[in-house]
Specification:
By secondary structure, the chain is mostly beta strands. The protein has strands spanning 2-7, 10-13, 18-26, 28-39, 46-51, 57-59, 67-72, 77-82, 91-103, 106-113, 117-122. A hairpin with a 2-residue loop joins strand 9 and strand 10 (106-113).
Amino acid sequence: QVQLVESGGGLVQAGGSLRLSCAASGRIFSIYAMGWYRQALGKQRELVAAITSGGSTNFADAVKGRFTISRDNAKNTVYLQMNSLEPEDTAVYYCNIDCRYYYSTSLRRGDYWGQGTEVTVSS
């Protein structure tokens, strides 16, 4: 019922910037929180940043001051602007949304993940 498509990953040198985008589509009624997670090789998936429907944000300590998160509610899209990238930021980045969607004649709540986009930061 809901699909997420991520874009914007790639290879960048340390100190550089990337902007990730995640567009949600399908039978969406409303989206609560939207967030970005990452998983480095051999490590657990961790929260990078999240934003509520009201615009409140929170960030992992490791990215505070370097990353910003924003959303366009009209487009059901969330963005992650990553500046001053470090090799430690290398990971697969996943988009996540908490939403309500139409299911037949009712509404259901669901948690959805994107397919992941790879970010590699070279030193």
